[in-house]
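Please, structure for the following, as C-alpha coordinates.
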Amino acid sequence: MFRVRFRLPKGHWATYRFLDLVHDALVTGLTAAGATPEQVLGPGAEAWNFAALGYHRRHEGQVHSLVVSTPSAILAPYLARLESGAIRYARTATAELFDFSAAQTSPELPPVIPQDVGLLGVLTLSPLALRDPRQPGKRWHTRFGDCDLATAINRRLSRIAQRPVTLNIQPDSLYLRANPHHSVLVSTKQDQQGRPAFVIGLEGPLVLSGRREDLLLAWYAGLGEKTRNGFGCIGLADQGVGR
Protein backbone atom coordinates (compact mmCIF):
# COMPACT_ATOMS: atom_id res chain seq x y z
CA MET A 1 0.00 0.00 0.00
CA PHE A 2 1.29 3.46 -0.85
CA ARG A 3 -0.10 6.96 -1.32
CA VAL A 4 1.63 10.12 -2.45
CA ARG A 5 0.78 13.74 -3.20
CA PHE A 6 2.38 15.87 -5.93
CA ARG A 7 2.11 19.66 -5.50
CA LEU A 8 2.97 22.31 -8.05
CA PRO A 9 4.61 25.50 -6.70
CA LYS A 10 2.21 28.18 -5.55
CA GLY A 11 0.70 30.01 -8.49
CA HIS A 12 1.47 27.20 -10.96
CA TRP A 13 -1.26 25.12 -12.59
CA ALA A 14 -1.54 22.28 -15.08
CA THR A 15 -4.50 22.30 -17.46
CA TYR A 16 -6.61 19.66 -19.17
CA ARG A 17 -9.88 19.41 -21.07
CA PHE A 18 -10.53 15.70 -20.59
CA LEU A 19 -9.58 13.70 -17.52
CA ASP A 20 -7.94 10.93 -19.54
CA LEU A 21 -5.05 13.32 -20.26
CA VAL A 22 -4.19 13.32 -16.53
CA HIS A 23 -4.61 9.54 -16.44
CA ASP A 24 -2.25 9.09 -19.39
CA ALA A 25 0.37 11.33 -17.78
CA LEU A 26 0.28 9.18 -14.63
CA VAL A 27 0.48 5.97 -16.66
CA THR A 28 3.51 7.40 -18.44
CA GLY A 29 5.12 8.15 -15.07
CA LEU A 30 4.33 4.75 -13.56
CA THR A 31 5.72 2.86 -16.55
CA ALA A 32 8.83 5.04 -16.45
CA ALA A 33 9.18 3.96 -12.80
CA GLY A 34 9.19 0.31 -13.87
CA ALA A 35 5.55 -0.81 -13.97
CA THR A 36 4.42 -2.75 -17.03
CA PRO A 37 1.51 -1.44 -19.11
CA GLU A 38 -0.53 -4.50 -18.09
CA GLN A 39 -0.08 -3.61 -14.41
CA VAL A 40 -1.63 -0.15 -14.82
CA LEU A 41 -3.98 -0.49 -17.82
CA GLY A 42 -6.80 -2.79 -18.82
CA PRO A 43 -9.15 -5.16 -17.02
CA GLY A 44 -6.30 -7.13 -15.41
CA ALA A 45 -4.48 -4.08 -14.04
CA GLU A 46 -3.64 -3.62 -10.39
CA ALA A 47 -5.92 -1.37 -8.32
CA TRP A 48 -4.88 2.28 -8.10
CA ASN A 49 -6.63 5.63 -8.02
CA PHE A 50 -5.99 9.35 -8.23
CA ALA A 51 -7.53 12.76 -7.69
CA ALA A 52 -6.73 15.90 -9.68
CA LEU A 53 -7.21 18.73 -7.19
CA GLY A 54 -8.07 22.21 -8.40
CA TYR A 55 -11.10 23.69 -10.14
CA HIS A 56 -12.94 23.89 -13.44
CA ARG A 57 -13.59 27.01 -15.47
CA ARG A 58 -15.94 26.51 -18.39
CA HIS A 59 -14.56 23.42 -20.17
CA GLU A 60 -11.03 23.48 -18.76
CA GLY A 61 -9.62 21.91 -15.62
CA GLN A 62 -6.90 23.58 -13.58
CA VAL A 63 -4.83 21.30 -11.32
CA HIS A 64 -2.48 22.29 -8.49
CA SER A 65 -2.07 18.86 -6.82
CA LEU A 66 -2.36 15.17 -7.63
CA VAL A 67 -3.08 12.48 -5.04
CA VAL A 68 -2.15 9.00 -6.26
CA SER A 69 -2.73 5.83 -4.28
CA THR A 70 -2.64 2.04 -4.53
CA PRO A 71 -3.47 -0.89 -2.23
CA SER A 72 -1.41 -3.21 -4.43
CA ALA A 73 1.82 -4.69 -3.09
CA ILE A 74 2.90 -5.13 -6.73
CA LEU A 75 2.30 -1.52 -7.77
CA ALA A 76 3.33 0.20 -4.52
CA PRO A 77 7.13 0.07 -5.17
CA TYR A 78 6.65 1.68 -8.59
CA LEU A 79 4.42 4.39 -7.16
CA ALA A 80 7.06 5.05 -4.48
CA ARG A 81 9.62 5.56 -7.28
CA LEU A 82 7.35 7.73 -9.41
CA GLU A 83 9.12 11.03 -10.11
CA SER A 84 7.21 14.20 -10.85
CA GLY A 85 9.45 14.82 -13.86
CA ALA A 86 7.91 11.77 -15.53
CA ILE A 87 4.29 12.94 -15.06
CA ARG A 88 4.10 14.59 -18.44
CA TYR A 89 2.03 13.71 -21.48
CA ALA A 90 1.58 15.43 -24.83
CA ARG A 91 -1.35 14.63 -27.11
CA THR A 92 -0.55 15.75 -30.62
CA ALA A 93 -4.05 15.08 -32.03
CA THR A 94 -5.54 17.82 -29.84
CA ALA A 95 -2.39 19.88 -29.20
CA GLU A 96 -2.61 19.32 -25.43
CA LEU A 97 0.13 19.01 -22.84
CA PHE A 98 -0.25 18.00 -19.20
CA ASP A 99 2.98 18.75 -17.36
CA PHE A 100 3.50 18.08 -13.65
CA SER A 101 7.29 17.90 -13.81
CA ALA A 102 7.74 20.91 -11.48
CA ALA A 103 5.74 19.31 -8.65
CA GLN A 104 7.11 18.54 -5.20
CA THR A 105 6.51 15.04 -3.85
CA SER A 106 5.34 14.07 -0.36
CA PRO A 107 4.19 10.60 0.76
CA GLU A 108 0.89 10.58 2.66
CA LEU A 109 0.56 8.61 5.87
CA PRO A 110 -2.52 6.42 6.45
CA PRO A 111 -5.22 7.64 8.84
CA VAL A 112 -4.82 6.66 12.47
CA ILE A 113 -7.39 4.01 13.45
CA PRO A 114 -6.54 3.02 17.03
CA GLN A 115 -9.12 0.25 17.44
CA ASP A 116 -9.78 -2.92 15.45
CA VAL A 117 -13.14 -1.38 14.53
CA GLY A 118 -13.33 2.34 13.87
CA LEU A 119 -14.71 5.08 11.67
CA LEU A 120 -13.46 7.73 9.28
CA GLY A 121 -14.99 11.00 8.20
CA VAL A 122 -13.91 11.52 4.59
CA LEU A 123 -14.35 13.83 1.61
CA THR A 124 -14.53 12.76 -2.00
CA LEU A 125 -11.32 14.27 -3.43
CA SER A 126 -12.48 12.99 -6.81
CA PRO A 127 -16.12 12.23 -7.62
CA LEU A 128 -17.58 8.86 -6.66
CA ALA A 129 -18.88 6.96 -9.72
CA LEU A 130 -21.56 4.29 -9.28
CA ARG A 131 -23.55 2.73 -12.11
CA ASP A 132 -27.31 2.57 -11.71
CA PRO A 133 -28.35 -1.02 -12.56
CA ARG A 134 -31.98 0.06 -12.84
CA GLN A 135 -31.23 2.15 -15.92
CA PRO A 136 -30.38 0.74 -19.38
CA GLY A 137 -26.97 1.50 -20.79
CA LYS A 138 -24.19 3.25 -18.92
CA ARG A 139 -26.22 5.37 -16.51
CA TRP A 140 -24.80 6.77 -13.29
CA HIS A 141 -26.34 7.46 -9.92
CA THR A 142 -26.88 11.19 -9.44
CA ARG A 143 -27.94 11.23 -5.77
CA PHE A 144 -26.51 9.52 -2.70
CA GLY A 145 -30.02 8.75 -1.49
CA ASP A 146 -30.91 6.80 -4.65
CA CYS A 147 -28.36 4.01 -4.23
CA ASP A 148 -27.16 1.41 -1.76
CA LEU A 149 -23.69 2.83 -1.19
CA ALA A 150 -22.40 0.10 1.08
CA THR A 151 -23.43 -2.79 -1.18
CA ALA A 152 -21.97 -1.25 -4.34
CA ILE A 153 -18.72 -0.15 -2.72
CA ASN A 154 -18.16 -3.30 -0.67
CA ARG A 155 -18.67 -5.48 -3.74
CA ARG A 156 -15.77 -3.86 -5.56
CA LEU A 157 -13.50 -3.70 -2.50
CA SER A 158 -14.17 -7.38 -1.85
CA ARG A 159 -12.99 -8.21 -5.37
CA ILE A 160 -9.78 -6.27 -4.81
CA ALA A 161 -9.11 -7.80 -1.38
CA GLN A 162 -10.32 -11.28 -2.39
CA ARG A 163 -12.17 -11.48 0.92
CA PRO A 164 -15.46 -10.07 2.25
CA VAL A 165 -15.39 -6.32 2.95
CA THR A 166 -18.25 -5.07 5.14
CA LEU A 167 -17.97 -1.33 5.53
CA ASN A 168 -20.92 0.80 6.58
CA ILE A 169 -21.02 3.97 4.48
CA GLN A 170 -23.27 6.92 5.23
CA PRO A 171 -23.37 10.34 3.54
CA ASP A 172 -23.53 13.37 5.80
CA SER A 173 -27.27 14.05 6.20
CA LEU A 174 -26.82 17.77 6.93
CA TYR A 175 -24.74 18.19 3.78
CA LEU A 176 -27.38 16.41 1.71
CA ARG A 177 -30.09 18.62 3.14
CA ALA A 178 -28.15 21.76 2.28
CA ASN A 179 -26.93 20.43 -1.09
CA PRO A 180 -29.69 18.33 -2.68
CA HIS A 181 -27.87 18.49 -6.04
CA HIS A 182 -24.46 16.96 -5.36
CA SER A 183 -23.59 15.28 -8.65
CA VAL A 184 -21.02 16.55 -11.13
CA LEU A 185 -20.50 15.78 -14.81
CA VAL A 186 -16.87 14.91 -15.61
CA SER A 187 -15.66 14.95 -19.21
CA THR A 188 -13.42 11.90 -19.44
CA LYS A 189 -12.35 11.69 -23.09
CA GLN A 190 -13.10 12.58 -26.70
CA ASP A 191 -13.87 9.97 -29.35
CA GLN A 192 -12.52 9.94 -32.91
CA GLN A 193 -15.50 11.97 -34.10
CA GLY A 194 -14.76 14.68 -31.54
CA ARG A 195 -17.71 13.80 -29.29
CA PRO A 196 -17.08 13.99 -25.55
CA ALA A 197 -17.69 11.09 -23.19
CA PHE A 198 -18.58 11.77 -19.61
CA VAL A 199 -19.22 10.19 -16.22
CA ILE A 200 -21.57 11.56 -13.57
CA GLY A 201 -20.01 11.38 -10.12
CA LEU A 202 -21.15 12.16 -6.59
CA GLU A 203 -19.37 14.64 -4.32
CA GLY A 204 -19.75 15.13 -0.58
CA PRO A 205 -18.65 14.05 2.90
CA LEU A 206 -19.09 10.44 4.00
CA VAL A 207 -18.71 8.51 7.23
CA LEU A 208 -17.09 5.09 6.85
CA SER A 209 -17.18 2.58 9.70
CA GLY A 210 -15.92 -0.96 9.98
CA ARG A 211 -12.82 -3.03 10.53
CA ARG A 212 -9.45 -1.28 10.40
CA GLU A 213 -8.24 -3.38 7.47
CA ASP A 214 -11.37 -2.52 5.48
CA LEU A 215 -11.04 1.19 6.20
CA LEU A 216 -7.39 1.18 5.12
CA LEU A 217 -8.30 -0.71 1.95
CA ALA A 218 -10.86 1.99 1.11
CA TRP A 219 -8.26 4.69 1.83
CA TYR A 220 -5.73 3.23 -0.59
CA ALA A 221 -8.03 1.70 -3.23
CA GLY A 222 -10.69 4.42 -3.48
CA LEU A 223 -14.45 3.97 -3.60
CA GLY A 224 -16.79 3.00 -6.40
CA GLU A 225 -16.01 2.45 -10.05
CA LYS A 226 -13.47 3.85 -12.54
CA THR A 227 -10.98 4.59 -9.76
CA ARG A 228 -8.00 4.10 -12.10
CA ASN A 229 -9.54 6.82 -14.28
CA GLY A 230 -9.65 9.47 -11.57
CA PHE A 231 -12.77 8.69 -9.53
CA GLY A 232 -13.42 7.72 -5.92
CA CYS A 233 -10.27 9.01 -4.22
CA ILE A 234 -11.00 10.03 -0.61
CA GLY A 235 -9.32 12.27 1.96
CA LEU A 236 -9.84 12.98 5.64
CA ALA A 237 -12.65 15.45 6.25
CA ASP A 238 -10.82 17.23 9.08
CA GLN A 239 -7.86 17.96 6.77
CA GLY A 240 -9.90 19.32 3.88
CA VAL A 241 -8.72 19.14 0.30
CA GLY A 242 -5.32 20.66 1.06
CA ARG A 243 -2.88 22.28 -1.35
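The chain has a mean pLDDT of 91. The longest helix spans residues 20-32.
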